[in-house]
Design a protein that fits this description.
Blueprint (H helix, E strand, L loop, with lengths): L2 E2 L13 E2 L19 E4 L3 E3 L16 E6 L6 E10 L5 E8 L3 E2 L2 E2 L5 E6 L7 E5 L9 E7 L5 E8 L11 E6 L4 E4 L2 E7 L1 E2 L5 E8 L6 E5 L7 E5 L2 E8 L5 E8 L1 E2 L2 E7 L9 E8 L6 E4 L10 E5 L2 E8 L5 E9 L6 E8 L9 E8 L6 E4 L9 E5 L2 E8 L5 E8 L7 E3 L3 E2 L13 E3 L3 E8 L5 E5 L14 E10 L5 E10 L2
Parallel strand pairs: 17-23, 37-42
Antiparallel strand pairs: 1-12, 2-15, 3-6, 4-5, 5-14, 6-13, 7-12, 7-14, 7-15, 8-9, 10-11, 10-13, 16-18, 18-20, 19-21, 21-22, 24-25, 25-27, 26-28, 28-29, 30-31, 31-33, 32-34, 34-35, 36-38, 39-40, 39-41, 41-42
Length: 505
């Protein structure tokens, strides 16, 4: 991977660095010649200035530099057999100056570009280490580069190259001077971090270096710390620059994230009231497992996020991850079902001597719906009413969805009287509690009950199919009214009764 790197170029040489002999490319100006310690790698490089070609720019360092040309068909280059080895996988830094010659051999030059290769033996172009963008700056400009060979190499080469921008047979050309005295091994930087707890400054960043010439110094931004590890950091982005003893640097960025512990709470209530078998279960995410749970202020944590056999009430759980970030879940309310109970039981006794129309109806509260109902020795049913019951005491059970049960009993008595329907002849709706409504007294087990009341003009003023309904005479004047009653009695005989009544005000 090819990267740009800014670094200090030092003359101090270390074992990991590779020396470049004659780095300023000094020599006697001459065409088609390589400087001393360098060899011609391709075609005819020139030691400049003043050799030929109207190249008169002064050198950056020393007296001379190299000029390299290229066309679409050929290029020029120089190489050096190194005393050391460029090692595979090691990142190196190199500095040099370049400029663009506008004219060369009295020809216009379109642009310039440098390619740096490494190889072995007579192979100058074994691997492309770095390639500059094309440029046209005529003043000397310093380039600081890094590269990482994929194999070990003993030969180092500089070549000009021709880009597609140069057309119509035009030349590409470069001037190169003042290489750094060594190819410097750079530090390889590895970064790691530990997240900070939410809303706190507990983050940690760490830098470690391999390669380069140690020991390294460090500089962190923001903060200015100079150690390899920095603690007590809030969430944010951080940058560190590691500087090796040979002056090369490596810069990296790392982010300290904020640990947010998220907890999904599942409350499973007891099946029945009073069981005290409620359960709280947590599902934790975020942070770094394993998680530790402190239940209801306890000092001894558990790694199991289930809490069972709880009474109804309010609880809290402190959740802590492995590095120590924590969150407290407060007021976790545990509510179990209300007690299953018979809120009300309605008993209808047997109407008269010769029938069997006893009835028991239950109203249920608490528990968990739906409910089921059962008379002793009977089957479970969803209906809360038992009808056509004979006289006697009845025992019943009620259970809810969770099989919670409640029991009760009721007694039905028989009214020893004639089976008949009696209709009053008058009523007085004056709210005195006596005869305030007109209602039939049904002492029989009747079906198909229909009662209608008409005024003097034959208009119906009241209708009902329920024997328990009553007429209150609202918005009707005092006077005489006609009623008509039809029903089927307990002997399954159709009956019709009619008569008059007086509304008294």
């Amino acid at each position: 991977m090819l990267l740009w790197l800014s670094f200090l170029s030092l003359t101090d040489i270390h074992a990991q660095d590779v020396i470049i002999r004659n780095p300023s490319l000094e020599g006697k100006p001459k065409a088609a010649t390589a400087p001393p310690e360098w060899t011609i790698a391709a075609n005819s490089p020139d030691i400049q200035p003043g050799t030929c070609c109207n190249i008169m720019k002064p050198a950056v360092n020393g007296d001379t530099y190299i000029g390299l040309l290229a066309t679409a068909e050929w290029d020029e280059g120089i190489s050096q057999q190194l005393n050391g080895v460029l090692k595979a996988g090691i990142t190196y830094a190199l500095s040099f100056d370049m400029a663009f010659p506008v004219d060369y051999f009295k020809q216009k030059v379109c642009n310039g570009g440098l390619a740096i290769y490494a190889g072995n033996g007579s192979q100058a172009k074994g691997e492309l280490l770095w390639k500059s963008p094309v440029f046209t700056h005529t003043e000397w400009k310093r380039y600081n580069i890094i590269f990482t060979p994929k194999a070990d190499y003993h030969v180092f080469s500089l070549f000009s190259y021709h880009s597609s921008d140069c057309n119509n047979g035009r030349l590409a050309g470069i001037l190169v001077d003042n290489l750094s005295a060594s190819v410097l091994e750079t530090p390889r930087l590895s970064l790691s971090s530990q997240n900070t707890c939410q809303g706190e400054s507990t983050g940690i960043v760490r830098a470690s270096v391999t390669g380069g010439t140690g020991p390294c110094t460090y500089l962190w931004k923001p903060g200015g710390q100079t150690t390899s590890q920095v603690t007590h950091l809030p969430a944010g982005n951080y940058e560190v620059t590691a500087t090796a003893r040979n002056g090369t640097t490596s810069t990296g960025q790392i982010t300290v994230m904020e640990t947010i512990l998220k907890n999904d709470i599942l409350i499973t209530p007891s099946r029945c009231s009073g069981d005290n078998n409620n359960e709280i279960a947590l599902t934790t995410s975020g942070g770094t497992p394993p998680y530790h749970y402190f239940f209801n202020g306890g000092g001894h944590p558990t790694e199991t996020p289930q809490f069972r056999k709880l009474r109804p009430g309010s609880y809290q759980v402190k959740v802590k991850d492995d590095p120590g970030c924590s969150v407290t879940l407060k007021d976790i309310r545990v509510v179990e079902p209300l007690p299953l109970q018979i809120a009300h039981q309605e008993v209808k006794d047997i109407s008269c001597s010769d029938t069997r129309d006893g009835r028991i109806s239950l109203a249920i509260a608490g528990g968990t719906m739906p409910y089921l109902f059962k008379l002793e020795l009977g089957n479970w049913q969803s209906d809360n009413t038992w009808s056509q019951l004979n006289e006697g005491r009845y025992y019943f059970q009620v259970k809810d969805k969770n099989e919670c049960e409640v029991r009760g009993n009721a007694e039905i008595i028989r009214n020893q009287r004639q089976c008949a329907v009696y209709v009053p002849t008058a009523f007085s709706p004056n709210s005195d509690g006596l005869n305030d409504v007109f209602r039939c007294r049904v002492n029989d087990d009747v079906r198909d009950f229909q009662l209608q009341v008409y005024n003097r003009w034959g208009a119906a003023v009241f209708r009902s199919s329920n024997p328990q309904d009553a007429w209150d005479g609202a918005q009707q004047p005092a006077g005489s009214y006609i009623w008509v009653l039809t029903y089927t009695d307990s002997r399954q005989q159709a009956r019709k009764q009619q008569g008059s009544l007086t509304l008294i005000r």
